[in-house]
Amino acid sequence: MYPVGIPCLLDAFLSSSCSLQLAIFLVAVFLVLALSTSVFAARPKDCEPAHLPEHSLFTIVPFFRKRYDFLNWGFRATGQSLFQFQLFRHTVVAVSGETGRKAFLTAKGLDLNEGFKVLSGAIPMLRGVTSDLQVRRIAQIYKRVAIVQREDRLTQLLPEIVEDCRRIMTSWGSSGKFDPFERVYDLVFQTTVRSLTCVEIADDAAVVARLKHLYGILDSGTTPGTVLLPWFPTPAMIKKVWATKQIYDILMGAINARIQSGVPRNDTLQILLDYGDDKLIIVGFFIGLIVAGARATGASASWLVTFLGGDPIWQQKARTEVEHLLSVYAPATSTPLGSAAKSQSDSTTPPSLSARLAEIPLSAWEGQTPVLDAVIRETLRVAQPHTAMRRNVGPDLHIDGKVVPTGAYVVYPFSDVHLDPEIYPDPWRFDPGRPVDTKRAYSWVGWGGGKTVCLGQRLAKLEMKIITAMFLLGFDYGVVDRSGKLADPLPKPNWNDALLCRPDPGSCYLKYQRADSSQTPL
Q: Which UniProt keywords apply (predicted)?
């Protein structure tokens, strides 16, 4: 049953008189100001990280609005590799530098789940579903993430992802112009839902579009108010609660429908049901993994095709690599033998691009694509504005002579290493040919590092490779501005957009035309 604590509280608030609502609001404002005044009055001891020079609640609002700029300002203003600030009663310590990075990624006392619970606000919070989970439950979810990425499961998914790509790319027509941060993101959302939920949802384009819309409401509703005062019924918080309930209802409806039908299917839902997982764990798995998969992979895939669109040399290298795989595993002169070929009605007709791509085995996608691997690595470096979040559950942590106390929250911005000109000269330049730095600890953390790495990276890489391969071989394209002229320079990733890293709206389009459309269908 849907947890109704917050909705009931909202109903009670909204049904109260205007005078009572105003009184509650004024009390909340008073408490906020009182808390902000008291917490910023404290002065650091010699062993503590430096405080920010300005002591105001409004000083830390950019942590939620413009996190990249805020953290950079904090390190500059304090002149230290660590600094601290207050989110009401919560102490937050930002760390940087090689020593701080190594400690952050390896310290046993820094807890990922506890960190995101308070600082993120980007994941829908439902008690017993996505929050307040016991350690055993969390471990169970992690095991399921590994299971759905086993070789047999990904081998089964591969042609299904290819088919989703074919269907959606065909809908784009033979030529045109689109915003990659909308169209490519839509495609990744579809393949993520396909990979991590169930066929009842993935096969229904209207339901997938509805889910994407609702997740967009969650993104836009993540404000300082909804994170710092999640109990206060601001308009943004009300929208988030409503969207969360709608997502919950859609996913739970699909789970119930499967159970009631008794008809097994080859998808992630069936895997979870066969393991005997209860419905709350399953819906929590769906909610969390869609967020992680669609947001991160969608943003990365959008930038990947954009970067290649502005770099003819690497675009051709990637295209040549995929063409080589096709020549080895699915020559155009032969009729494919796998499941994707069954749609070929005429054995004398050259197989479609999608049918051929589906014949490339998983082992080749994962082990024989060094160019695509390099392109993905560089894309994650330049266009992944992640700030990792943890909570120190103990003991006290010592970094660069400073103490991070038990109970404090700790953040590490990936920009500290990925945009460091000493490690990556001209750091904003997209260059997949950069040599790998082996001198510094964790000089690349695109998938995380140390004791915490991205659990879904195997699936994410496969999705990005398939989408990129089909787009490169199916279309000739370039990056243009809003007027249709070649974009020079390319748009710059917006690291202040902590969720999607999108450039300014309308500043970037892909102008495309079907490649050899008269000869080979997608």
A: Heme, Iron, Membrane, Metal-binding, Monooxygenase, Oxidoreductase, Transmembrane, Transmembrane helix
Model confidence at 140, in pLDDT bands (50, 70, 90)?
Answer: confident
Domain limits, the chain: 135-514
Q: Is residue 447 within 8 Å of residue 454, measured between CB atoms?
A: yes
The residue among 94, 191, 28 whose CA lies nearest residue 388 is 94
Predicted local distance difference test score (pLDDT) of residue 148 = 93
Contact 75, 81 (CB under 8 A): yes
The tokens of 148 are what? 């759905």
Whether the full predicted model's pTM is greater than 0.85, yes or no, is: yes
Domain 135-514 = CATH 3.40.50.2300? no
Q: What is the 3-state secondary structure (H, E, C) of 38-107?
A: HHHHCCCCCCCCEECCCCCHHHCCHHHHCHHHHHHHHHHHHCCCEEEEEECCEEEEEECHHHHHHHHHHC
pLDDT at 124: 58
**Residue 130 phi, psi dihedral angles, 5° rounding:** -120, -5
Mention every residue, 6+ apart, whose C-beta is less than 8 A from residue 401: 47
Residue 370 has pLDDT above 80, yes or no: yes
Q: Write the pLDDT tens digit of every residue in 204-221.
A: 999 999 999 999 888 776
C-alpha span between 314 and 130 (Å, rounded): 40
